[in-house]
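Quick one, probably user error.
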């Protein structure tokens, strides 16, 4: 039985967990109402001190080389999230733990400032919130993303953001002047325009209609915005592709991208559980088509194939996307932000413990 407001159905054991999990029936479940939902799970946030803050990427099929993630785990709870397996490294489950046991890098802005101030630092656009959403609900309380943007704003450092949250609108006061200097670009991810389906797939992300309004709000503020349709799930969301492109273009999106569903590591059994819970009649058909697009596997990690898939169905999807994007006037090339304006932050001077004599 799924928990309200959560994406994963269970707390599937991670591949590196030191403890074994075993389901045990103590008889109380039979006493509960058959239709009753299990109790809600609270979100727990651990404040952590990051030792380093920037991640380098060498993948040719990702349009950025440097990324920064303010949080580990994500309260949005998207069941398909490719980052879920990273919680295994924390001795936690990629299932419900990933969306309830979260980590906030509260010193991220400080570490970033130190990194940018190093003599050998070379300015490249930083992609913010790639693994886990930088504007997930806990950002309202902790404000780590806001602090990071302030550092980037103050030293004219380019940034690219991707989110499913309307909270990005809070930071327009920083992003708009950066965009005016070709230093900021944003993308909003929309998986489906079907609100009930979105609530099951990504329960704590903004509703699809709200994300479209966010595209319009950012566009009106002068911030270039793109639409990311990710993931495209065969026989569940793939028929929404054209409508999402049309709605996002009408809202002001100027560039577009899509990614097919990929099921690395623990994401595969978690997604299977989700399908059997919510769409059992479609489960076999969906999974068969996913495997067809990944060379007969749940996931093909090969560069050039992992994002778009291969085979006849992947080709048909690519043709549909290209035809619609061309008709609507989307651009495909990535926005090249300006790195020449970067000014290293001034080093912070600790106060003199003896005070000043003058």
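Nope, works fine. Designed sequence:
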């Amino acid at each position: 039985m799924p928990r309200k407001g959560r994406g994963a159905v269970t707390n599937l054991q991670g591949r590196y967990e030191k403890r074994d999990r075993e389901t045990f029936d103590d008889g109380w479940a039979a006493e509960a109402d058959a239709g009753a939902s299990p109790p809600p799970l609270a979100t727990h946030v651990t404040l952590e001190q990051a030792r380093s803050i920037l991640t380098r990427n060498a993948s040719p099929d990702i349009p950025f080389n440097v990324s920064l993630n303010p949080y580990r785990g994500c309260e949005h709870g998207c069941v398909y999230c490719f980052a879920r397996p990273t919680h295994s490294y924390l001795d936690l489950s990629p299932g419900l733990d990933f969306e309830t046991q979260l980590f906030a890098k509260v010193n991220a802005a400080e570490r970033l400032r130190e990194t940018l101030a190093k003599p050998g630092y070379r300015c490249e656009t930083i992609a913010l919130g790639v693994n886990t959403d930088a504007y997930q609900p806990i950002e309202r309380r902790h404000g780590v993303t806001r602090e990071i943007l302030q550092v980037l704003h103050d030293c004219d450092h380019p940034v690219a953001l991707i989110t499913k949250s309307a909270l990005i609108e809070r930071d327009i006061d920083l992003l708009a002047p950066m965009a005016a200097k070709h230093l900021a670009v944003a993308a909003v991810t929309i998986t489906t325009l079907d609100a009930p389906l979105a609530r099951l797939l990504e329960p704590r992300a903004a509703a699809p209609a709200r994300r479209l309004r966010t595209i319009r709000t950012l566009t009106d503020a002068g911030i270039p915005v793109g639409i990311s349709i990710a993931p495209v799930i065969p026989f569940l969301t793939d028929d929404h592709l054209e409508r999402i492109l049309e709605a996002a273009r009408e809202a002001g999106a100027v560039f577009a991208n899509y990614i097919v569903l990929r099921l690395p590591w623990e994401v595969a059994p978690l997604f299977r559980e989700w399908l059997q819970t919510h769409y059992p009649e479609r489960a076999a058909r969906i999974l068969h088509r996913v495997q067809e697009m990944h060379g007969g596997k749940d996931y093909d990690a090969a560069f050039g194939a992992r994002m778009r898939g291969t085979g006849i169905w992947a080709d048909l999807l690519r043709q549909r996307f290209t035809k619609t994007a061309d008709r609507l006037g989307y651009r495909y090339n990535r926005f090249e932000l300006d790195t020449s304006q970067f000014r290293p932050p001034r080093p912070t001077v600790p106060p003199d413990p003896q005070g000043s004599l003058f």
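The chain has one domain: 43-328.
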